[in-house]
Design brief:
Blueprint: E1 18-24, E2 27-36, E3 45-49, H1 60-68, E4 72-76, H2 94-107, E5 113-118, H3 120-131, E6 136-142, H4 150-153, H5 160-167, H6 172-183, H7 193-204, H8 208-224, E7 238-243, H9 257-260, H10 266-276, E8 281-285, H11 292-295, H12 297-309
Parallel strand pairs: 3-4, 3-5, 5-6, 6-7, 7-8
Antiparallel strand pairs: 1-2, 2-4
Helix pairs in contact: 1-12, 2-3, 5-8, 6-7
Length: 311
């Protein structure tokens, strides 16, 4: 199996990778990102925000679909993930990651964009839309996590040290088993394997400790910074995509059985979120799970283009 560096050195992205150097929390950092231009521009930009177990590269089919429709596409790796910096001391917050993303777009001269977020990126996209409403043309949430407050539901708190201990046990097999069970309802396709190798290769490489520590810090962020209570304040036109077979819930492994059983009910969570976000449109994929853009790219991309083309 592959072994990659702490910033995914050795793993090639489907498009040229660029780097945004900036200062945050009194330290120099770098955000890797893809900036893909369309052959026939429509004057609009789409920003794709990856999930916690994903990277900018995972958006490859969506990038192709959007650029073919005329969109300029920006797909960053957030600080702490993939090909971006992994500072050992950083106060991770969705507000900070949103600010980092906004600084990148400002550097690129992009004042307004369609913001698309998947999984953890959905929590970030919601925060971005709340923090920068004037810069958010449309909001698209793809199986976002954080549609429920796990702590309020009864999931016990876990320390960053405990998160780190858990992350240090990560392997190719554990990644694959988790995704098969939670993301894809027990199914597995060869198309999913490159993304397991992408993540697993970082944990297998020399930067294993730095990767695990960054993931521990960001897990703490995800668990302790819910955005679900602020959905009614989202002003941007919003489309919510939900694969109904998804059962993702952070900390579910620590929850009492009666709590764990009710967590990650995406059919119910999706409808509740769509009702909470003013004017939101809900698109359900009955036979898909956590990553509809990976499971069925053609269908997902067709629905995404409908959503971003709507008036």
């Amino acid at each position: 199996m592959p072994r990659y560096g702490p910033r995914l050195e050795g793993f090639e992205y489907p498009r040229p990778v660029q780097t945004f150097a900036f200062t945050s929390q009194s330290q120099p950092l770098e955000m890797a990102y893809l900036d893909v231009a369309p052959a026939r521009p429509n004057g609009r930009t789409a920003v794709l925000l990856h999930g916690k177990n994903f990277c900018a590269a995972t958006w490859v089919s969506t990038i192709d679909a959007l650029t073919a429709a005329g969109f300029r596409v920006i797909a960053p790796d957030q600080v702490g993930f993939c090909k971006s910096s992994k500072p050992s001391g950083y106060q991770y917050s969705f507000g900070q990651l949103a600010a980092n993303t906004h600084a990148l777009l400002d550097m690129l001269g992009i004042e307004r964009a369609v913001i698309v977020g998947h999984s953890m990126g959905g929590m970030l996209a919601a925060r971005y839309a709340l923090q920068y409403p004037e810069a958010t043309e449309r909001l698209v949430l793809v199986n976002p996590i954080g549609l429920e407050d796990w702590k309020a539901e009864g999931v016990p708190w876990r320390s960053i040290d405990a998160w780190n201990e858990r992350e240090m046990k990560t392997s190719f097999d554990s990644i694959r088993d988790y995704q098969r069970t939670v993301y894809y309802s027990g199914d597995w396709k060869p198309a999913y394997e490159p993304w397991v190798r992408m993540l697993g290769g970082m944990y297998a490489g020399d930067g294993r400790k730095a990767v695990a520590w960054s993931q521990a810090l960001t897990s703490d962020m995800v668990f302790n910074q819910p955005v679900v209570y602020e959905f009614p304040r989202i002003a941007a036109p919003t489309t919510l995509f939900v694969g109904l077979k998804d059962r993702t819930a952070i900390g579910k492994d620590l929850a009492p059985p009666e709590v764990a059983k009710r967590l990650g009910d995406y059919p119910a969570l999706g409808r509740r979120a769509a009702a909470a976000i003013p004017g939101a449109t809900l698109v359900e994929f009955a036979e898909l799970g956590h990553s509809p853009q990976v499971e069925d790219p053609a269908r997902f991309n067709a629905e995404l283009l409908k959503a971003v083309s709507a008036p």
